[in-house]
Every structure is written in C-alpha cells, then in structure tokens.
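Q: My labmate handed me this sequence with no annotations at all. I'd like to see what the chain might look like in three dimensions before we decide whether it's worth expressing. Could you predict it?
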Amino acid sequence: MTKDLLTLASFPDEDFFKVLERAELLKAVHASGEERFTLKSRTLAMIFEKSSTRTRVSFEAGMSQLGGHAIFLSPSDTQIGRGEEIRDTARVLSRYVDAIMVRTYSQESVEDMAKYASVPVINGLTDKHHPCQVLADLLTIKERFVRLEGLKLAYIGDGNNMANSLIEGCVKAGIDISLACPEGYDPDSDILAWARGMKRAKIEVVREPEKAAAGADVLYTDVWASMGQESEKTAREKHFRGFQINSGLLGRAKPDSIVLHCLPAHRGEEITDEAMEGKNSAVFDQAENRLHAQKALLELLIMG
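A: Here is what I predict for the chain of 304 residues:
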C-alpha cells in the first residue's frame, strides 16, 4: 500500500480499486444510518491555498462521520503564508495529525509535502491533477453501469487538471476516453504518453466535440477558465465556443449516457441548464460521491 495519493498514475492499482470498492460499502453504511467510527481520535490537517466548497465540506464531514476531526488551515492560518518552507511544515504537522490534505496551485508543493511528511498526504487539487474528484467520478459511473471496463467517456473542454486525472483514472479502469479540446488547450503531453504506453484503454484527442461524444457512455465537462485563469476568460470564451454539453451533443452519445461535471458549473457556457437538470444528469450524485470516495481514501491511507 502506498503512503500518499499524489496522482492516480502513481497510486497502486490495488489501492485504486480498493478505494472504489470501500466507497460503495461506506455509502451503503451511511444510507443505513449505521455509525462507523474507524477514525476515532484521528485528525486530518486540511491546507487550502485555493478556495473550495466540495473539497472542504466532503473531507471535513467525512472525518466527522468516521469519528475523527479535521482542521482547516488557510494561508493566513499557517506560517507557509509567511514563507516557512514546506519541508518544515510537513515535519511539524506530522507530529500533530494523522494525515494531511493539500489543495494548492503547484503540484511540486504537494510532492514536497509528501517527501518530508511521515503521515499520508492527499492531493486535494493542484493545477495539474485532481485525483480525488476522479475517484468520485468513477464511483458514480460504476453505480450507473455496474462495470467500468469497456465504457467510453467523452471529455469536452479544457485539457486541464481535471482532464489529466481523468486520463489516468480511465486508463486504470479500462475506460476509453476521447477528449475534445480546442487547439492549444490539450492535456499534459507526458500524461498522454504515459496513458498510451499503458495500452489498457483507447485515448484520443480531437477538435470536434461531436466526434468525441459519438457513442459515449459518459459526457464530462469542466469550466472553460479554471481558478487562477480569470484574466484569460474573454479569450477562452472565444476559443471554447461550441465546446458545450447540450441537447445536440447528448444526441450523439448513447441514449442511456450520463452527464458529469466536477462543479462549480457556469451554466450557459460549458454546459446548458437543460443538460445539468435533464434525465441524463448524474452531476449531483457525482458531487455526493466526493464524500464517500474520500472517506474510503482516508480509511485506507490512515488505517490500511
């Protein structure tokens, strides 16, 4: 078992599938009202350099439901915001808590935290990866289709951190993935090379959303301009025009396809209100599953 979750590519297959299996169990336990205090007296430190709704609430609620405690730390709450080195913070926090979750800009920051921490470190989001979200996505897909292997996911939009982690997660799960991205907005080239080298799923990058969506079981999108890219909003609106999940694109996918969005959504841009609220939408099941997937991850990394 690995100590950390930094990327899905580096997360062992055994642990990857174990988290998904345990998340299904924990969701059923939660629905039954049964208490499960496996993390009693355990503490999670949550370092946020990027704001969040779902990441903060799902981790905090998850620790509480498992009998543990979570501590929210913004840059103003820690000495990192005043220049303390990550290696020092990592070693100090390791003396106080049982795990550290980091939501930040740089992937290197999370990697450094894990290098020097003696407790598990979880990547809550960086500009390059969003592994926790994809675990929840795959749980949602598995709930709808029972299986993962052999499905097709179409991703429409920016080749950002979400696209990078989806590529890694789909390859591990055996899901074919077609990404429709405007020219100049492709996913990370090294991640694409890794994924194609695995030879476990079909991966393609195309320029036409309709081509990506053809025969898809899952349609997935994200905002055109991510956090920190606000200055590019006008240019991106021009480049991404037409890269939208709407009724026309749904007509290209399979009739029983599902629509996913990691949220927050800008309705009318990357997705229409009709697609968000329609019968194919699993967006809010997907959001709920952040809670159950992260509880499973916390149990695995802290308890083994």
